Amino acid sequence: MSRAGAWLRRLEVLTRPVDNETRQAMDRRWAELPAAVRTPAQALGRHGVGCEGTHGVFPRCNFSCSPCYHSREANQVRVDGPHTIAEVDRQMALLREVRGPSAHAQLIGGEVSQLSPEDHAEALAVMRRHGREPMSFTHGDFDYGYLERLAVEPDGRPRVNRLSFAAHFDTTMFGRRGIRRPGDEQELNPYRARFAAMFTRLRKEHGVRSFLAHNMTVTPANVDQIPDVIRDNRSVGFNLFSFQPAAYVGDARRWKEDFRSMTADAVWHRIEEGAGSRLQFRVFQVGDERCNRTAWGFYVGERWFSVLDEDDPADMATRDAFLTYLGGIHFNAPLRLLVPRLVRRAVRHPSIVGIAVGWLLRTVRRVGGLRTVLRERIVPMTFVMHRFMHAEDVAPAWEMMERGETSDDPVIRETQERLSACSYAMAHPETGRLVPACVQHSVLDPEENHTLRVLLPLPQRRDSQRLNGHGPRVVTGV
Ligand code: SF4
């Protein structure tokens, strides 16, 4: 092939709306899904393959949470930068191989800021090298100096254009500097604002942008405080609020309440109360609705609007067109690639231009007209509820699935259905398998942490006693 021919071929591949590997991975995911979740709203297998997370890369944490999703051995594993980077590399390589060249992945432990800023930065770089858009999971109790060293080289050059963090703030967590045992959610508001303000400063001083998600574990004790958490913090810099009703998984010493008393609807209604709007979670479905509810939208001034209105047939037709024609496109790709990919798709399917314009006009009307759009502040805001499952259900369900059996017990059967539609995968390079995060935490974590404890023992120092009784914060998904 001539050089010009090779160049054109490369250009064609680079600007292909959805590359072949992604298409194949999505088709496989769709085929694996239980028939009941292959709905017109289903995003798995039609727009992406789901989310990914790390495990066993830094299991330890310097907080104490009740409940805690990690096994009790997690805190006896030393945080070790080279181990983290090597493991992240191996896990991401497998995810890249099985799920294609682009996905969102969570750098999650343990507490990520227990890594040095340089090791943390290298772990993120490794994830990006495997085509993963990383998000660091943290309790948020670190200083601006840490963030700056993470984002900026010693010579002042930014390491990255953009950082994503999911920060966990709630009253189930103990050990935060300045407020070791918060009395209620409101007392944490200054800490939430302080965390978000560090990223505003980072952008101002170094031009590094950020995406911030707020995570909250929900228990019977704090469920009624959800509305105020949203109302008080929706303007401080977060663009996503994620709520995880607590489950009986991880360290049993930290299960103090009746988690089964909280229904999905009850928690979701509290989230709606805080958002000040009905949250339409059936516009797009991510896996099984019993695991995930997600409402994508935006605030216009004080009011939240869904990006698509499920009561409007034209909007639902737009959803269908989006999944049919734009599903699988990597919207986080650099603009120089994204724009030609969208143009190619529009040239092939010109009707999508009219559909997009129609949606835009309807949406402007729905939010109050052009003057409202120009006058009010518009802030993208997504609400998520992710419900991990109880270990006592996951363990037998998984055991039977491994044998190719389906349970007759309705609870175990439901667990199996949800595991089959899981949207949150973790990689095991040693076996070449991916497992649902529920399986990782309910079944595999104890043994894994036991092995890591031997591999990475804590140094025999007096200050290790300080950490006695401090477990990792609750790990959250999506
Ligand atoms: S990790 Fe568990 S709760 Fe989350 S999507 Fe997967 S199966 Fe459902």
Description:
- By secondary structure, the chain is an alpha/beta fold.
- It has one domain (42-311, 378-467): Alpha-Beta Barrel (TIM Barrel).
- 41% of the residues lie in helices and 15% in strands.
- The protein contains 15 helices and 13 strands.
- It has helices spanning 3-14, 20-32, 81-99, 117-129, 144-151, 189-206, 226-233, 264-275, 313-326, 335-348, 351-366, 370-375, 391-402, 410-420, 437-455, and strands at 51-53, 64-65, 103-107, 132-138, 162-168, 173-174, 209-218, 240-245, 292-300, 303-306, 378-386, 424-428, 433-436.
- Strands 10-9-11-8-7-5-4-3-1-12-13 form an eleven-stranded mixed sheet.
- Strand 9 and strand 10 form a beta hairpin.
- Helix 13 packs across helix 15 (437-455).
- The radius of gyration is 22 Å and the shape is globular.
- It starts with a helix and ends in a 23-residue tail after the last helix.
- Residues 463-478 have low confidence and may be disordered.
- The structure holds iron/sulfur cluster.
- The site of iron/sulfur cluster has 16 residues, from helix 14 and helix 15.
- Iron/sulfur cluster is lined by residues 287, 291-292, 386-389, 418-419, 422-424, 436-438, 477.
